[in-house]
Amino acid sequence: MLGLVVNPVAGVGGPAGLGGSDGAAAQASAAERGAQPRAGERARLALELVHEAIGGPLEVLTAAGPMGEDAVRAAGLVPRIVVRPGAATSPADTVAAADALVAAGATLVLFAGGDGTARDVARGLDAVGAGGGARVAALGIPAGVKMYSPVFAVSPRAAGALAAAWLDGGLPVEEREVLDLDEDALRLGRVEPRLHAAMPVPVRRGRTQARKAATPASEAAAVSAAVDGVLRLLRPGVRYLLGPGGTTAELARRLGLPKTRLGVDVVLDGRLLRAAASESELLDEIAAGPARAVVSIIGGQGFLLGRGNQQLSARVLRALGEEPLLVVAPEQKLVELGGRPLLVDTGDPAVDRALAGFVRVVTGPGTSSISPVNAPDAEASSASRTEGEGHAP
Amino acid sequence: MTEPSAAFVHPYLPNSAPEVRREMLDAVGAASVDEFYADVPEALRLGRPLELPAPLLAEQDLARHVRGLLAKNRSTEDRLSFLGHGTYRHYVPAVVDEVINRSEFLTAYAGEPYEDHGRFQALFQYQSLMAELLAMDVVNVPTYDGYQATATALAMAGRLTGRRRVLVVSDVLPEKHSKVHDFVRVHLELELVPTAGGTADVAAAAARLGDDVAAIWVETPSATGAVEAALPALATAAHAAGALLVVGTDPIGYGVLTPPAEQGADVVCGDIQSLGLHQWFGGAHGGFIAVADDEALVMELPSRLFGLASTDVPGEVGFGDVAYERTSFARREEGKEWVGTAAALWGIAAGVYLALMGPAGMAELGELLLARTRYAQQRLAAVPGVRLGDDALHLREFTVDVSGTGRSAAELVAALRAEGIEPGIVVGEELLLVCVTELTGQADIDRLATCLAAACGTPSDRQIPQEQRA
Amino acid sequence: MSLPLAPKPAIRRFHQARWDEPVIFELSTPGERGVLVPAVEPGVRDAVGDVLAELPAGLRRAAPPALPEMAQMRVLKHYLRLSQENLGADLNVDIGQGTCTMKYSPKINDQLVATPQLTAMHPLQDPADAQGVLEIVWRLERMLAEISGMDEVSLQTQGGSAAIWANIAMIRAYHEANGEGEQRREVITTIFSHPSNAAAAKAAGYEVVTIHPDADGYPDLAALKAALSPRTAAIMVTNPEDTGIYNPAITEWVDAAHAVGALASYDQANANGILGITRARDAGFDVCHFNLHKTFSTPHGCGGPGSGANAVSAALAPFLPGPRIVRIGEGDDARFEVQGAGPQSIGTVAPFFGVVPNLVRAYAWIMALGAEGLLAAAETAVLNNNYLLAKVLEIPGASAPYASGRRRIEQVRYSWQELYEETGITSEEIGVRMSDFGMHYWTSHHPYVVPQPFTLEPTESYSKAELDEYVAALAEVAREARETPEIVRTAPHRQSVHHTHHDDLDDPARWAVTWRAYLRKYPEVAARLAGEPESTADASAA
């Protein structure tokens, strides 16, 4: 069963140049600047494709009015209203709508919006998922200003195609990160996506292809391979500071340990020493013996440090010494960077400079990639890159 | 660079006519082909014509040239050949050549299951026909040759067991051993357990088994053509130690011989050249690897496996790659080798061959090979000074020890070559490896014996003593 | 109806043959024979007795193999029908399988290798009886040495990946001979090099380090320098890469590798556009290989046999696989002998002399073209490619990422990302639909670095009209993706079979790699084929 929630004000801030649409002040400001809502229109495009693919009349669980009902009708499908929000919608309405869609039996929640909407939907899904059982999948119809989270289809029609395939017999899901920028900071010129949550997202495997060569056919297999690569590098007596992210979560799982989704957890010889450690707790652990941070790539921008893992601060990195980082990521994550460098931003230009250059990223057992690392806040980094003198920190 | 080739018109180059080239250059806004090479630094440009022989542009001139060179050959149709040692002279039914020379098969490559349905079905059928012959449920799309198949089979055993030692209990072709050794040496150590009487010394092998042994590697028929009679005992010993029994074989005899899978083999591998492929100067080999339909084994196979699949139309039979993602399940540091262009066409040929032969053909061929092998053994052993290398049961090949003749094996080969006979392969100072097939009849074997006797300086036409029979 | 006839449609109304041919076991008729085997001669039987009865216990097969029983013409007909259900290169405008150089394999070459003077040659015959074939192989080695600039060549490997294996095996042996085997544990490659370079290096025990391109698609020299160290055994790269981009800093790459004591290995799978233009050795490479089934025209045979050619500098020559063919004497007195592998050789990597019929074909192909012809083939392949590039870029929604505004060598990795964003139709779906027009199409190796990729390599073998036809079909499918996407999404429509389901192939309980496994796993089928009523199915399969 398909569910739909539209954030009717998503995207209004973009064209208005506000860097996002979060908050009543921004929305009012956008309205003053003549911005038109577009999320409903994008949702309609996605659902029209579902309609074409499925053919007959299809019932879609949704919220009343502009939060979904309108788009479902415009696409020629049949809305079943499960929640009625108030007149001026708020993030709380999105959370409540997602919650209600799941309660009503949705197996895939389509949401039209941006990163902020994704955060709210994740919250709504988690409210239900906390009770146990399989978590409901979600998929973003891109309609926001900020879309750093890899939970969005590439276009509304692509979202529709995935939804149609889901209804046609299901698709595998992958756990994807939900990131969001602090919009107040963005308006001040700082790009700082933070990791907020994770949600299962349907993915489409390729259809039968001439399989000439080994193909890491699924993201899960690629993550698993990367974790295999790290496992064989772990040494006894070393404290590993596992940063947040899906890859490090898989590493913890393979070690038989729980992992906090957003925290930095400290592991020694297969034991969990601390979960969700603070900066000072990390410093205590580092003082107790040799230690290394295991980090992955956060979000589509390629941050290694400074986004979602601020506990791994400049002080912590200094304390870690010569080789502070063990970087792990599935090859596809590097591919998606399209030649752009990885980024570090610890807030301390000297530490950032030391990290800049090139880093070895473990992608599998016995395999790694060399990736450039830039420190946006430390100017010297670009020089070290072009000289090719960078080191693997 | 100017355009030296602008006026070079050739039947293989449709767009070599100057007018078309100009039109195409204009379409892309280029003044000359040279523009396309802008990224190739000047310092790396050859700047002169390659030093190659003058071309033979007309097809008839080319054909005459190549045929002229090949006419210097004297083939096994011109000579009476008893050569084996990995490449065998069997009859190739005309239908086999007809099928694999079809353009549609010969020039196909990487088409999808629906556009190359015939290729998928033909190779699925190859797998299935081999599976019947070998009595095993999973057979791969052919890899390069029997050497590679064996190397991969042993590597699989290493990955599955996580162990390093391999006990080699049969006589193995030196070239095959060389290949296998270099392929697996990072992961495995091959230990030779000397054979006794031409086949495995089971007690010696068992004594060297341990919890660090990945596999016992048997060859049957061995490099000397000896058929291993102790597979069940070797299997029991290997399995008791947690090792696999890997059997390298030539499938030609399994119309009458018990297939290794029914004697405890875990992985059966080898070459398919005997099944419908010409000798081609050793250039037509393909490797098979067969395992039980056990997920753990199947997941270790690096090769492609074609399987039956349903399609969007209920009941329709399609094909596709089975468990393809296994090749990406690189869970061990060693990796999983690779999939690439290997020997698919030879697999199709072997499939056609087995379909033509059928159960009766393979049974009759097996009996014929056993009978002629035995007959040749008797005839040659009857030559004074010549005795059999061992007492084992042999299929197709066997060695004779010529030390009693006062002549070296090489001298005898030279003498018989002068008679138009390739009597076998020198595998030791006084050891000759002789091969018979369905193409070497009784009269041919008799001639070999007669000429060998003559070369040894003795007549050979005496009756075979009764007690030497069978 | 009357003459003149109407012109043929602009886009072919292709339909693949659909014979509904049963799996061969279903065609079996007890008692039929496809070929007969000579009987054991009475004289032989008299001498040896009943060899089957005398087999040791356990060695005699209990029941004959359940092969089909078919008269000869039925076997022929069955396989000819299957042959028709293939889109072989001879029928196709086979430019859609980029990286594989699907060029014309001249028919005369197939005829030449079919003579008994080649097919009936045994590799261990008296070399005096094999002078013709030995000379051809030797000559081909010398030609490829000239084409690569290298000193010595071995033709023993049977395909590109096998040749890559021989490359890394020689590199390993070289470092071991220099006492650096333990020290040098890493091999560096690029993500646009053929994946078998990484795979073979791993199989040889090396750690593999991958370099990604810079934002414009060029191999990143700075990243290479960061990766190189005294631990590096070799760089193994393709050039031009699978994007069709030639690495202009290739000399700097090789020099950087040499500076740390590593070797440089060149995968020349993409050599078709640079024959006679530039050579591996001139860029400093120590080792390289060609795929004779790509660049030198031997047929692809449904996936082999191909043939590899390993070419090396003098320093690496002692490590080449053996046996080797040597020429003794000159001119008319020259004769050819076979020498075993030398003491430092990696040994035998394949039986005897490699895929000899393909060596003869490659020799004939080079002899048919000569130096001028090879250069013309390369330049034509590159012209065709850049023409095709211009035509493809005219299709809305298609793009050629990287090196924007620059030319490519012999192939291009394109992207349908824009079309995908607009329509939700993937490159793979477009590929399936292309087959309905009688055109093969391929995306890319994995991982997909270029989003929604497709890779076209026109080679020198296709005429302008054929390139135009392929592009017209691409444009038609792109139009369908926008206007009637369901047609694309539900393709194929005009093939021998319809879209196949992966579920049957990935589940160990359901997959059927052979007919006997199929009958075991699906007893109801076995029962139906045996003519038994459904109810006894379980019992019959037990």
Architecture overview:
Chain C: Keywords: Oxidoreductase, Pyridoxal phosphate. The complex is a heterotrimer of chains A (393), B (470) and C (542). Chain A contains 14 helices and 16 strands. In chain A, a hairpin with a 2-residue loop joins strand 15 and strand 16. Chain A has two domains: 2-202, no CATH class; 219-387, no CATH class. With 393 residues, chain A is an alpha/beta fold. Chain B has 470 residues and is α/β, with parallel strands linked by helices. In chain B, 34% of the residues lie in helices and 13% in strands. Chain B has helices spanning 18-28, 59-70, 94-100, 103-106, 117-134, 146-161, 174-184, 202-208, 231-240, 295-298, 344-381, 409-417, 442-456; strands at residues 80-81, 138-139, 165-168, 189-192, 213-219, 244-249, 267-271, 287-291, 306-309, 318-321, 387-388, 397-401, 421-422, 425-428, 431-435. Chain C is of the alpha/beta class and 542 residues long. In chain C, the strands form three sheets. In chain C, strands 1-7-6-5-4-2-3 form a seven-stranded mixed β-sheet, sandwiched between helices. A two-stranded antiparallel ribbon of chain C has the order 8-9. Chains in contact: A-B, A-C, B-C. Chains B and C meet through helix 1, helix 2, helix 3, helix 4 and helix 5 of B and helix 1, helix 2, helix 3, helix 4 and helix 5 of C. Strand 16 (367-374) of chain A pairs parallel with strand 3 of chain C.
Poorly predicted regions of chain A are 206-217, 380-393
Q: How many beta-strand runs of chain B?
A: 15
- In the sheet with the most strands of chain A, the strands line up as 10-9-8-11-13-15-16-14-12
Mean pLDDT of chain B: 93
| CATH class type of the largest domain in chain B | Alpha Beta
For the sheet with most strands of chain A, the description reads: 9 strands, mixed
How many H/I helical runs of chain B?
A: 13
Throw out a few tags for this protein.
heterotrimer, B: 470 residues, alpha/beta, Aspartate Aminotransferase, domain 2, Aspartate Aminotransferase, domain 1, 3 domains, four-stranded antiparallel sheet, 15 strands, 34% helix, disordered N terminus, disordered C terminus, C: 542 residues, seven-stranded mixed sheet, two-stranded antiparallel sheet, 10% strand, PyrdxlP-dep_Trfase (chain B), PyrdxlP-dep_Trfase_major (chain B)
